[in-house]
Write a structure and sequence with these properties.
This protein is mainly alpha-helical and 120 residues long. It has four helices and no strands.
């Protein structure tokens, strides 16, 4: 016999009392306590602290992964043109270093010009 809530279907008083008697009791063992909140807060604090102190390693690693994702299509294109993996990688890495060095030289010359004009 399926249990339904009293009042939704017409029932006699005895059937309604029986349905109320069969309702499960709510116990406190399923309720969350403050220990769970404390453990979550402690876990968040530990993760943030680890990420803060590991930033010395993680930032260069993230930049390396980003650079790898940026240069991978060029390597794939060179390999499609029947160039080997090693020569394609060397060409792309040398090209990337040359572009970064050229950008650095331009930036350095602009900053030195700005430094000379500052006292004026």
């Amino acid at each position: 016999m399926a249990r339904t809530v009293c009042g939704l279907e017409p029932r006699s008083g005895a059937q309604c009392k029986r349905a109320e008697r069969l309702k499960p009791f709510v116990t406190d063992k399923h309720r969350t306590t403050s220990n769970g909140s404390s453990a979550t807060l402690l876990t968040v604090v530990i993760v943030v602290a680890v990420l803060y102190f590991a930033r010395i390693v993680l930032i260069p690693l993230a930049l390396a992964v980003l650079l790898a994702f940026l240069l991978a299509p060029l390597v794939i294109r060179l390999r499609y043109w029947r160039l080997g993996r090693t020569p394609a990688t060397l060409i792309v890495v040398h090209l990337a270093v040359a572009i970064i060095a050229a950008f650095g030289l331009i930036l350095a010359s602009q900053l030195s010009d700005l430094g000379r004009k500052m006292p004026e």
